[in-house]
Amino acid sequence: MPRDPERLNAIDTSILDLVAQRIDILRQAGGAELPAEANARIQAAVDRTATDHQIDPERLRTLLRHVASLSAAELEPRRVAYLGPQHSYSHLAALKYFGDAATLTPESTIAAVFDAVVRGQAAMGIVPVENSTDGRVVDTLGMFVQNPVNICGEVLLPIHHYLLSSTPRDQIVEIYSKPQALSQCRGWLAQHMPDVHLKELSSTAAAAKLAAEQPGVAAIASEAAGREYGLNVIAASIEDNPNNVTRFAVLGGHEPSSSGDDKTALVLQIIHRPGALADVMNVFKTHNLNLTWIESYPMPAGPNEYLFFLELEGHKQDATVMAAIEDLKALTIRRDVLGSYPRGRASAESKSAAGT
Length: 356
What we know:
Strand content: 25-35%
Low-confidence stretches: 348-356
Number of strands: 15
Structural class: alpha/beta
Shape: globular
Radius of gyration: 22 Å
Order of helices and strands: HHHEHEHEEHEEEHHEHEHEEEHEEHE
Largest sheet: 6 strands, mixed
Mean pLDDT: 91
């Protein structure tokens, strides 16, 4: 069937008109949506209509996320800080959450991302929290101890690492990447590249750039970084755990309202006495609250004392969560509510994007 240019032009014009109408509705309502709420609504819209389309649901989410990002950029441009450089995995997480119309600014360290948000140089930030293979990201937890910045969202990225180079595989003598990426591929590297020297760099994107500049060098990085620097894919999905996921926290001063599928993050310093931790756990049991994450972190000021990072199902405005937080007052020296936010969802779309 021949293409119908007039009909295609009419559809494209209608799409543009609808985008303009969308921006006008938001403008009349007082401004752009919060990213967490926009993403939750987009997820629900795609879930409702998934069987009505033959298009991959993640591509539909990407399309709507771009439209939401474009709307926000028109109404309330927000600077978002992320752990750079560009094409790092944190950059890909930021694109997944904020869309490609957002103003994304790379920072050299996790501490610098926190600092940009605290000082108001960025409206929001995004930092890695934990990896399902390597566990917690210590630098991020340490910053929450110093600056309990509000968490207003989360991003889950399945991790698929790529071995990238402009050099043929049998001529590769060095492989560079971030320590976490090397760790997540250690089994594959030991089996397939046992005689190659492994070198650490500050980011996977920096490793890809180096591989493009030096013969005999390969990088472990995202497919997007490989495209950016013109590298060949020597091997794909070389991570040892095919179900490996990195979770990122979105930092920002605003607080999303309840979506019906939320999590709340806490930092607790428990009174130092026998049974104190069990008493705290019993609070969540009493209020029938499910903990999704618990992590201990050594107190900077004293030996054998710990802070506890906890995450539970529910929003801090829920009656049961509010009651539990109130009950924790008598059992804790420090009790920081880091925020409530819609639960993130890992998606098959992230085949080329993951890691910290």
